[in-house]
Write a structure and sequence with these properties.
This protein is 15% helix and 38% strand. The protein contains 10 helices and 64 strands.
Amino acid sequence: MKTMLLPALLCFAWTAYAQNLLPVHPHDSPGSNAPAGWRLAEGKGIWTAATDRSGQVFQVDGAGEDSAYWRMDLPALKPGGVYRFQFEGKRLADAAGGGAIAGLNRVNRDFPLSSSWQSCGFVFRTPDNLDDLYLRLGQWHIKGSVVFAQPEWVPVLVAQRQENGLELGEGETIDQGIYRFNANFGWEGANYHRTLHASRANFNSDRWVFGPGQAVIYRFKVGEYAQKSAQLRVAINYYDGGDLKVEAGKDLTHWLDVAAYGATNRGGLTALPSALFPAAEIYIRLRHAGETGAFQVNTLDYQAPLAGDPPSLRGATRFMDSLAGDARLAVQLRRLELSPDRQSWRIQLALQAGSPGLETVRAVVGREPAETNKASSLALVNPVAKSIDMKPAGLGAKPVLAELEYPIGKPGADTLWVRLNTTKGDVLFTGRSSVLTGFLDDNAPGYWLAESPQMGLWWCESGWKIGRERGLPPRPVSGKASPISVSLAQGEFEPMQLILRPAQAGQLLSAKWLPAKNAVDARRAIQVAFDEVAYVQVTQPTDRACQPGWYPDPLPPLRLPLNLAPDRNQPLWITFHAPTNCPPGGVAGRLEIKTTAGDWSVPVRLTVYGFALPRETHLQSALGLNAGIINEYHGLTRREDQEAVYEKYLRNFASHRISPYSFYDYAPLNVRFEGEGDKRQARLDFTQFDKAAARWLDDYQFSTFQLRLLGMGGGTFQSRSLGQLEGFQEGTPEHTRLFQDYLGQVERHLRERGWLDKAFTYWFDEPDPKDYEFVVAGMKRLRAAAPKLARMLTEQPEPALIGNVDIWCGLTPEWTRERVAERRAAGERVWWYICCAPTAPYATEFIDHPGTELRLWPWQSWQYGVTGILVWETTYWNSPLVTLAPNHQDPWADPMSYVSGYDFPVGHVGYWGNGDGRFLYPPNKGKLQPSTPNFDGPVNSLRWENLRDGMEDYEYLWLLQREITRLENHPGAKSKIKAAKALLVIPETVSRDLTHFTTDPRPLLKHRDQVARMIERLVKIKE
């Protein structure tokens, strides 16, 4: 078959001169209808003066189902070139729906934008065919207006990670002899990857878009290591016609068929033809083989076992924007990566003299100046300078390698600037790199404990996630470690982490808690549990604030001996529990650690506060728990086995102060209907339900439960349906009478047993405005049948719904303090939820986000006046669309929660985020379908434990509020009450708002301690 695509050209490996290629600046063309080079190409918009900044802005207006954009025909582009496009943008007041569109018309990215100015941008590779390419700034399906300012278009230098003779880029890894490429199309570089060889397809946000005749080619070559075989996963996420043909070859002229996908088969995992192997390199071609239609591809995963003994390596791709240059010096980016000790960024540039007489180059590296983002600014923050001798090179000789280094900053996004000048100060080159320091490389956590040539020991609080490669904290100046310090209330669980860092391979042989000799009797003594902190590998980051890598999350019970890898951290999760009758005060003890590298005795100082946490939990919760998934992963078929294991999960929930949707999967509320015609009535048997409810609602104090409804319809924004009862459709008189009879009896019974306040209905999920009328009708039927039964809806308050919802449960970004207070003043409850959204910068449930986020969520609930939290699932271990039956996804090996449901076809691969709906792990690591039943309980996660910590912290605030109320009018407590009320306000050092909060647990623990000390003082005051 004739080759469709040409090899990609190597563009901008060297640059002599570059700058912002767009002739638009903030003060250009005041008073004109359009800036130079731009025109309004579609829809409505104006070029106007900004109202909240200097200069002119682009504005586009939308009616909700249209698009509008400004267009600029670009200067000469190079096929396969790598560029960055960035701008500032925001929505104007009341703009809703849709999103901003930006980039090339054939390589576009959508941006949601907010009501505040924000910087947006991305890097991408241009197509190999440059037909009809132009730049756009506009809107799609926004109702209202958006504005843009300061567009910037610059060429980009690219460097891949290099080590041991290998070069790997973003999405590429080698682990245990297997090479993998997981295309992350949502990353900063969009469609660019080292492996992308050629492109004649379009790209939108995070997926390839194929029309007739369009194709892309990827090339997989892993140094000198031959590939022994390979398999490929491809998935279509949107389909509107045509056929996706997947082909493979050892060159660009001979192709073998691999797979074909289309209307009924949207994707899958396929082995490449054995005739191709062994192979030094493999080409993969994806092409539209039809004459009409279009489809989008958002998944491309490739893996191949390698011959020989390749080292383990995770690839990375770094970009440097080329903002200014001079013909006297050509610049190439060779490396930009963290130093081995992860303390600094190392930059390697290859410099080539372009004219005689250039003997010395002055290099300056610094951070982005706070006051400007312009290349012309000479001021850099904390600059580091170095002189580069160019004399050995000369014209036409090999380039000089300039090695530059700059210390890393705090975790998060940072901008490094590189300036190369002559000795006279002439600018030869200005480069800018956006770098992301992951929180796994944060040097802030931890306290040194002990060190020998064979082993280092340190500890940290439970809110940190410790990277496997992070080094030891610095040794105290005194050379002597302080004891581990942990504080907790009576009835509370409080964990910490002890980290072992061996210099060579070994084993942990023993880990024990030894209380001081004067400890109280065992019934009142501190209880201690030891768990291993295990790691999962993130290959597809959840959002743009995340990075690939190994993240701590599962906490399996510690089993000895535990293997220890050299120069790799192994945290132990140690949980202290104070019984409710534990005496307050200081408790001394030691952790005795025995390893093949030596033994250590680590002092611990516990503080037990002089109050107990309440048995009941005052921040309500509702989290999903799927009995069917549990049975599959535990290999349970007998009813009694299923009940026994399910009880272990319920006990786990109770010990974490979390309530599941249902405690009665195996204790149903039995309903039958008897009689004929108008005499037909509901007969209810509460025997099994009551027994379970008394146990879990009364004894274990679950705060809520979802009452499942017979005969009630439901749905989501995607589809909906009416319910049926005894053959009668919802809304008919017959259905209404039976429904009211049955549900009225349920309501009366729950009220008599004292459980009605904990019950809620949840029958429709995340409605769109088109669903509001349907939802309101259903809510009114519920109110008529059971007037006091709480109706919960996963939606924010909207005018069309108000008056028909008792518990509002919107996504966290939908709430302000004022909005919460307004609904509570109306007598309604406010909950909020997280799932696959929101992502950064909000607090989330994701594995690749900081550990403090889930502990902080209950703090923000108190801060905003929210009284309940919800998460859709805790055991979402498998997506049947991606891992086809009878196989199961391994959550220990793959942390990603893939999309399922919503009528997506088998083979669809969508990403909900790492750990979404997955707080617990099945205990059978490596044996997902056991031949014999597994009766162990669930394995906790670091996120699950932090959520419990936050739930307990909420009780501190509730207790303080109770004491304030009790002593409000006490004449001798006025000064204490004033100070106590101030402590009920969450400080900005903990949480300023929903997007500005601490990722360091220490400010949170400091305020918690202040609250605890105040409670101790207040409880001593008698009324």
